Amino acid sequence: MSHVSKTKLLSCLLYNIIGKSLPLDSMPYSKGLRNIRYFLFSKCIKKCGDDPRVDKNVYISPSIEVGNSIRISENVKIRKNTSIGNDVLIGPGVQIITATHNFSKLDIPINKQGDSQYKVNIGNDVWIGTNAIILPNVTIENHVIVAAGSVITKDVPTNAIVGGNPAKIIRYRDSKGNNNDSKN
Q1: DSSP per-residue string spanning 153-175
Q2: Residues 6+ apart with CB under 8 A from 8
Q3: Is the dihedral of CA 121, 167, 90, 101 positive or negative?
Q4: Which of 89, 119, 128, 173 is most solvent-facing, going by the fewest CB within 10 Å?
Q5: Given a cut of 80, is residue 182 above it in pLDDT?
C-alpha cells in the first residue's frame, strides 16, 4: 500500500463522514456547506483541478484525478485508478468501475480468485448521463456524450454520442454544432 499523508487520511475521513452527507447544491441554505464538501473532496483525492462541484453522497477513492470545472451529481461512485479531464459532467447514479473478478479457474470459486485492477480515463468536455456504467480498462475521448443508462464496455472515440447496453455509437458531434449520423 502506498504512503498516504496523515492530512490526506484525515481529509478523506472527514469527507466520508461529513462531506458526503451535506445538502445538495440546489438547496438555498447549502452555499457555505457545499464549499466545505468541495474543500474536503479536493484534499482527499490524488489530484484536483480548480472549481470542482460535487453533490452529496459521492463515493470516491483517494487515488482518482480530476481536472478543472468538473460537475459530479449525487449518488456517483468513482473507483481508484480513474482520471477525469476538464469540463466533465457526471450525472446522478453513474458508476465508474476499475476492477473485475478473476474467474479463469473452474476448480476455485470466483470469490477466491482475487481481482484485477485497471484504469479508466475520461477526456475533456464529456457528459456522462444518469445511471451510466463505465467498466474497467476504458478510455472515453474528448467531446463525448454518454446517454443515460448506457454501459460502456470499450473505448469511445472523440466527438461520439453513445448509448445502449453495451453502448454503441449513435452519431458524432462536429465543430459546427451539427449532429452527424453514424455510418455504422
Answers
A1: -S-B-TTEEEEETTEEEEEEE-T
A2: 43, 44, 62
A3: negative
A4: 119
A5: no
Active-site residues, by number, are 101
Residue 32 covered by a domain: no
Residue 31 resides in a domain: no
Closest CA to 54 of 16, 100, 2, 82: 16
Within a domain: 118: yes
What grid cell was written down for 96?
465508474
Q: Write down how long the chain is.
A: 184
pTM of the model: 0.88
- CATH code, domain with 91: 2.160.10.10
β-bridge partners, 53: 71
CB 122 within 8 A of CB 85: yes
Q: Would 79 be classed as within a structural domain?
A: yes
- What total number of domains does the chain contain? 1
Residue 62 belongs to domain spanning: 47-181
What 3-state class would DSSP assign to 21? Answer: helix
pLDDT (tens digit, 9 = 90+) per residue, 91-128? Answer: 999 999 999 999 999 999 999 999 999 999 999 999 99
